[in-house]
Structure formats: structure tokens, C-alpha cells
Amino acid sequence: MAEFQEKLRLQHENSMHTELEKLLTTAKPSEAEISRKDFEGFKQLFHHFLQEKGPSVDWAKIQRPPEGSIQPYEKIKLKGLPADVASSLNKLAVVKLNGGLGTSMGCKGPKSLISVRNENTFLDLTVQQIEHLNKSYNADVPLVLMNSFNTDEDTKKILQKYSHHRVKIHTFNQSRYPRINKESLLPVATNMGLTGENEEAWYPPGHGDIYASFFNSGLLDKLIAEGKEYIFVSNIDNLGATVDLHILNHLMSQPSDKRCEFVMEVTDKTRADVKGGTLTQYDGKLRLLEIAQVPKAHVDEFKSVTKFKIFNTNNLWISLPAIKRLHEKNAMDMEIIVNPKTLDGGLNVIQLETAVGAAMKSFDNALGINVPRSRFLPVKTTSDLLLVMSNLYSMNAGSLTMSPKREFPTTPHVKLGSSFTKVQDFLKRIESIPDMLELDHLTVSGDVTFGKQVTLKGTVIIIANHGDRIDIPAGAMLENKIVSGNLRILDH
């Protein structure tokens, strides 16, 4: 049986290699070299995929992280800052993951170009933050954007507007991998084109691809040559992911033989974060455990807030020389995420992905730092957008901080219904962002609009039944109210 399976594996692998070679013959001369490098990475991933059986973790081996492997942020902050912050900053580059589109929020083009606050986009805010750092400390922190083939062209067009800002901007492209037919395990692409029938044939393979594509672009070596030692990596839609000088100082002040090569910022789980990856001890190494790797029987245990108290924010600090070393030795060990998709025509495909944090176990002296929740402020939906556009936050030099006027530092729980999913609908339905300083919970469902200068306090639930419409009048103040039907306001 094992012999037969091995034979089948080899057959699949050989067929895949043949198809990839065929595809390469259709590449434009200018792209052939890049595509070949991409395919080398894909072949390795496909090889691992064929070897794997079932979930990639043995649940019995999973242990809580040992004492000291996750440090509280407060402890790191106690060290204070050195007199010369600039020399540490000059050894840092900021990398933003910029491969995603705004489709889930009903927007065309890169997600980073959606306006989130006073007409500023995610990218504007990022540039403002880094420029402020460079000016304040007379430093030279560059911004590096990891684009995908979906976002590269539009992003590059927009970058011209920052040419007079005090921040050097570099870009490199994530790999482009072929989606594979779930049945035949062969690429669905017929040539290297991105249009027509091949439009859905390609995908950017998750942010774990950062190591290979950063290395292949030549930018990794360029930054090392410029004296950069660490990158701070985060998702461009996490508005809380600003450069933290205390974490940077912690990294820079380690003795050279005990240099921490990888820091993962984690934060305490709430009910909203039960699906987030968590840190565990596994085979003597600190390791990221994602929900996709958990055997079905243990998913509830994984989601429990009692056993796994923290989750990964995907704010990571990684040593550049370590990335170079591990990549050159081909020692970057990341679990494969198998992501099933159905294409528009109904074809079932799979895409093989990896996560940037999964490589943590390959680095020396890896550390988790339990940071305040304020460093995790992702904008994934218009519900999140409502929060960051509101008076709950004040903005200074591209950074958002919770308003001191809010008594409780927790973020309200906001759930907007499907009528608000698209940004343009959201903006049409809300004439001006309500005052939410004293809000705890907001649920809105159905055909609802908000007039100007509405105030929401406590728990507010607004549900327009099918066929009804609710217009919250200008200047209304709703405190602990349930509004249902076609505008009947009840005390909650």
C-alpha cells in the first residue's frame, strides 16, 4: 500500500512539473525569470503537500508555553529608552503586508487605498507615522510594501504622491502561484496570462511567502548592506501596528550571542478572537498554532479562553540576517495551509499557503510579547471602520489612540448588518459618524439610516424588519434602547 501511495505521489509531482514547464514557455521574456523562481517555491510547497497526512500537529504534544517565553509588555517598557533612539531606528525597516484587495468591503483595488479617517487611506496613515518617526528622531526608517500581482500596479501609481515625504519607500512582489484542480491536482491555468479564462487561475500564497519573495527580490540584501538589522512586519489594515520603541530597544539591547531573532506580539483573547492563532510549546520550540491545524475533536478546546489565553496579532519583529541564513539553508519550516476555493464557473480548486508567523520555530531565541490590545486594531469590515472613524479615537501623526474621554479603555462591540457591508452603502446610510464615546454594544440590521449628530450610549440594538425602514433622526440620543419595526423606541 505504502509503495503504491509513493508511486502515486511521484506521478502527481512529475505531472505537476511537466505542466509548470509548459506554462513557463508562455511567459513574457521579462517575467520568465521571476516566474521560474516563483515556481521553484511552489514545487517545494506542493512536494510537502503531497507528503502530509491529516492535521500537522499531534495534539498530545501541545504544551503551554514555558514561563518567560511570553514577556509582558509592561516589563519590557520598564527598561526605559536609550539616549540615542535614532541609532536603533536606523537599523529598522517597516514592512507592511499589502497584497490584499478591498473586495470584502465592496471596494475595487488594493485595500490599503480605502479611506479610513479624514480622507486618509491605510497607506497615508502608514507614511505619516514613519515620516513622523524619521523627523522626530532624525532617523532613516524605510517603508517596504509587500504587494501582490493584484495590488502592485495600483499601489505603484499612488506612491508618486509621497515623493516629497521624508520616508524612503520600497516595494517587492509576493510570488504568484497556480491554483490547482482539486481532483486532478494540476494547475488550472492554460498560460501565464492574468486575464480572460486565466483570471482566476493564480493566487498570492499567503504572507508566509514574505521570506522567499523578499530574498528573491534582492531587497533583503540591499537593506542588510544599508545596515538594517530588523524588520517590523504587520498587516497594513492593522491601525494599531505602529513602531514601538520599547520593543525595538529590547531587541537591540540583547547580547549578540543571545540575540532574539523573532518577536511575535500577542494580546489577550476576547470572545471575538477565538479563531486567532495562539502560541504553544511543541517539540521544545515556541510555535504558532492556527485553527486550521487543529484536529476537529479539539477545536472547542483551541477556542477556549481558559487554556489558550492569547492570540497572534501578526505584528512581528524579525532579524534580517536570520531570514537570509534560514532561506539560504532552506531551513524555513512552515506548515501548509490548504485553502479550498470554488471558482466562478463552479470548479473546485485548492490553494497552498503559509503564514509568516509559522516560521517562528525556525528562529533562535524567539519570544512572545504580550502587548496591550491597542496594538491590534484591524479594519476588516465596515463595523471596524465605524469604530476607527468615530470620536472613540483621536489621531496624531497617523497614529490612532483611544480618546482619554472614554471611561473604559475597551472597544465597543459593533455589528452592522449586510446593508452596510460595502463602504459606499455604509457612507450613504450614515450621514455623520455618531458620538460613540459611551457606547458598549451596537447591533444594526436591515434598512437603517442615521441622521447627523446622533449619540449612542450603552447597548443599542436597531432592527428594521423586512420591508420596513428605520431612519434615526438627526440629533437623536439613544441610550440602552432597542429600536424595531418601523421606528418604535423601547427602553432596554
UniProtKB/TrEMBL annotation:
Q: Name one GO molecular function term.
A: UTP:glucose-1-phosphate uridylyltransferase activity
Residues the record lists as binding substrate = 207
Q: Which InterPro entries match?
A: Nucleotide-diphossugar_trans, UDPGP_fam, UDPGP_trans
* UniProt KW keywords: Nucleotidyltransferase, Transferase
Broad class of enzyme this protein falls into: transferase
Q: In which pathway does it act?
A: Glycan biosynthesis; glycogen biosynthesis
Which reactions does this protein catalyse? alpha-D-glucose 1-phosphate + UTP + H(+) = UDP-alpha-D-glucose + diphosphate
**Sites where the protein binds UTP:** 111, 174, 206, 237, 380
Q: Does the keyword Kinase apply?
A: no
* Keyword match Nucleotidyltransferase: yes
**Alphabetically, which GO biological process terms does the record hold?**
glycogen biosynthetic process; UDP-alpha-D-glucose metabolic process
Which EC number(s) does UniProt give? 2.7.7.9
The record's listing under Pfam families reads: UDPGP
User: Can you tell me which family this protein belongs to?
Assistant: Belongs to the UDPGP type 1 family.
Fill in the subunit field for this protein. Answer: Homooctamer.
Role description? UTP--glucose-1-phosphate uridylyltransferase catalyzing the conversion of glucose-1-phosphate into UDP-glucose, a crucial precursor for the production of glycogen.
Protein name from the UniProt record: UTP--glucose-1-phosphate uridylyltransferase
The organism of origin for this protein: Carassius auratus (Goldfish)
Q: What does UniProt list as this organism's lineage?
A: Eukaryota, Metazoa, Chordata, Craniata, Vertebrata
Q: Which gene encodes it?
A: LOC113044008
